[in-house]
Amino acid sequence: MNRSSGFVPPPMPFDGQSALRQQAELLPGGAVDLSIGTPVDPVPDLIAAVLADPDPARPYPTLTGRRIIENAIVSWLDSRLNVSVTPAEIGTCIGTKELVAGLPHLLKLRDPSRDTILYPEVAYPSYAMGAALAGCRAVPVAMDDQWRLDVSSIDPQDAQRALALWVNTPGNPAGGLDDLEEVAEWGRSNEVPVFSDECYVEFTWDGPARSILHYGHQGVVAVHSLSKRSNLAGLRFGFYAGDQDLVSYLRETRRHQGLMVPGPAQAAAVVALGDQDHVAVQHQRYLNRLNLLIEVLGQMGVEACLPGGSFYLWVAAPQGDAAGLINRLAQELGVVATLGEIYGERGAGYVRLAAVATDERLALVAQRASALS
């Protein structure tokens, strides 16, 4: 049956890079893929040991198991971010992308009078896609020249219709660090829930790690992930914490959907959140790789600088020719990068590189760059 008048899923953002990857593969040693933020470093041994135990996979996730992971989250937020929460203010999710994409639908059920999701104008595509999947309006919010959200630019009519405002700090792709106090105050004064995606919080380069929960819990929810900090993107574990009414509503509705984190993921998360040493190692790895890539780009005559946070370089292409730069990277360095326009119209003229290749692969890129001069 032809239903062409209904929703047609667009291609995934990274599906159209095969030609670029083929070009990069022509260099000796092959392509070095810096297009997607997929962790490549080892899963820490103490987490791998927990994953080897089959027992948590047998039963449905239990209340006891939930309490153990909630306590681990409470302890981590306190020790790492100096944020105090109670178990009633915490929910878990099967990776944070699942929560991001599904949130608008659940919020629209809660308040059918509203129909709008606000999100940064240069951002992870799933914020807008979640709105589309819920039949909502996706309205981008302007950012300043440091890639920080400008809440003063939000049209009051859009605020009145908003189900939520997403903020992402440190940001993907540009690495900006938002004024979370200002964002939280804007949300409360406009009665718009604010969801703060903080999955890169462990990779904050400019100052200390920060959370929207530093400015109170009312009307705000922080969203966190193990994917980046612990090299566990395939485990699909995330959590959200903050406003008790919002969290309680999401927990109960998501239970009806069967969105429960599997037992093995819960067990691994408890161990991961209880150990900061492996995160410190990963923090230094990404910092070293970003600095190496900045040097490599400089050898090409392309200026780049360390972002405020995250493990991406957001690079302004010379003369605004992002296609030209992305092709140079593939042809001269064998590097596969991403066009900035994937992240919003204002991203045109920029290229994003993810510092996710191993040190050995990036050393190969550095050798290729040195050979250019």
Describe this structure in words.
The strands form 3 sheets. The protein has a 7-stranded mixed β-sheet, with helices on both faces. 39% of the residues lie in helices and 14% in strands. It folds into 2 domains: 122 residues, Aspartate Aminotransferase, domain 1 (Alpha-Beta Complex), CATH 3.90.1150; 229 residues, Aspartate Aminotransferase, domain 2 (3-Layer(aba) Sandwich). The model has no long low-confidence stretch (mean pLDDT 94). The longest helix is centred in the last third of the chain and has 23 residues. It has 12 helices and 12 strands. With 373 residues, the protein is of the alpha/beta class. 47% of the residues are buried.
Which residues sit in consecutive blocks of at least 5 with pLDDT less than 50? none
Give the termini separation. Answer: 59 Å
Q: How does the overall form come out from the CA principal axes?
A: globular
The number of helical runs is 12
The strands making up the biggest β-sheet line up spatially as: 2-8-7-6-5-3-4
What would you say the CATH architecture of the largest domain is? 3-Layer(aba) Sandwich
Mind describing the biggest β-sheet?
Answer: 7 strands, mixed
Q: What class, by secondary structure content?
A: alpha/beta
CATH class annotation of the largest domain: Alpha Beta
Going by CATH, the homologous superfamily of the largest domain would be Type I PLP-dependent aspartate aminotransferase-like (Major domain)
- What's the pLDDT, averaged over the residues? 94
CATH topology of the largest domain: Aspartate Aminotransferase, domain 2
